[in-house]
Design goal:
Blueprint (H helix, E strand, L loop, with lengths): L6 E7 L1 E2 L4 E2 L3 E5 L3 E5 L6 H9 L6 E5 L5 E3 L11 H6 L5 H10 L15 H14 L4 E5 L7 H18 L2 E5 L3 H7 L2 E6 L2 E7 H6 L4 H4 L6 E3 L1 H8 L7 E3 L4 E16 L4 E6 L5 E6 L10 E6 L6
Parallel strand pairs: 5-9, 5-10, 7-8, 8-9
Antiparallel strand pairs: 1-4, 1-6, 2-3, 10-11, 12-13, 14-15, 14-17, 15-16
């Protein structure tokens, strides 16, 4: 039998954004498990989360979700009069558990500091620690750990993963960071102007997004139309396709000429010129940038669908 969704929204209308613009009626099922809410700034991620947790009231429609949850708001929602340690004990954590969470999020040294004395990064970590301390069956996080330095953020996501694995909790979180969504989510919801424009698996969104705009939700990619496939690959595709950098191979000895190339770390950007003079930039995964005027060809390792 199909699993009942975690949240079910039917024709829900609400105001979204800083200037409170009304979104079109939203019908949406959020599955159990780990779901990332994606979209550019202003897409309505925070507004949707605030509707889910009951902080923002819908104007119409029906919304059914969990009765118990822990929420990490975008502004952290800390209590200025209380210490970091009290943020955990006041939501039910034992003294031992509070000390474990403080240590796990590198907050032991500021355990007696009040929230107003914490840095943005410390406040972000404390907000997440407080959510875990509640042992709720559902965690809802709006840009969690956004103010934490990138060198340590993976450590704290590991704490969240271990908590979810041990408790069976579901997680719904908004993020701008493709690498976080790819590493932490099973499901994806993409928003535009407050409305869902994609609902499905993270794998589907990464490998086979339905259009060019959605490719950007999970990082760099090449979008190739049927005309592009003929012009640059010598192949005939029936429709446009997303080609992630690791699936595009530029190899020696072909009809294309390297105009410019630069190594960007996880991928490289290379400008190629075709025999008829057209120029296009491609994203790929080389060991190093390619030399200008090198003659090359492009091949694509397409995602194998079942």
């Amino acid at each position: 039998m199909p699993t009942e969704p975690l949240w079910k929204l039917s024709n829900v209308r609400y105001f979204s954004g800083v200037v409170d613009w009304p979104v079109a009626p939203v019908t949406l099922d959020i599955p159990r498990g780990r779901t990332a809410i994606l979209g550019p700034s202003g897409a309505g991620k925070t507004s949707l989360i605030e509707v889910l947790v009951g902080f923002k009231r819908a104007m119409s429609g029906e919304s059914h979700g969990p009765l118990s949850l822990a929420w990490v708001p975008q502004d952290h929602g800390l209590w200025p009069a209380h210490t970091a340690r009290e943020h955990l004990t006041l939501v039910g954590a034992s003294t031992t558990k509070a000390e474990q969470l403080l240590a796990a999020f590198d907050l032991a040294e500021v355990g007696t500091s009040r929230a107003g004395d914490l840095s943005l990064g410390e406040g972000a970590r404390l907000s997440v620690a407080r959510a875990l301390a509640q042992n709720a069956p559902v965690l809802v996080m709006d840009e969690p750990l956004a103010h934490v330095d990138s060198a340590r953020v993976g450590k704290y996501w590991r704490v969240i993963r271990e908590h979810i694995a041990s408790t069976g909790a579901s997680l719904v979180f908004a993020t701008h960071q493709p690498e976080t969504a790819l590493a932490e989510a099973e499901h994806a919801i993409c928003l535009h102007a407050g409305s869902p424009v994609f609902q499905g698996s993270i794998s589907q969104l990464y490998n086979e997004p339905p259009d060019e705009k959605l490719t950007r939700c999970l990082g760099p990619a090449n979008w190739l139309t049927p005309d592009d496939s003929r012009a640059w690959l010598g192949e005939s595709w029936a429709s446009g396709r997303c080609v992630r950098p690791e699936r595009l191979v530029i190899s020696p000895a072909g009809p294309l000429t390297v105009v410019a190339s630069r190594f960007c770390g996880a991928f490289a950007e290379t400008e190629l010129r075709s025999a008829d003079g057209a120029i296009r930039t491609f994203l790929h995964r080389p060991e190093q940038a390619l030399a200008v005027d090198t003659k090359v060809k492009i091949t694509v390792k397409l995602f194998a669908t079942s």
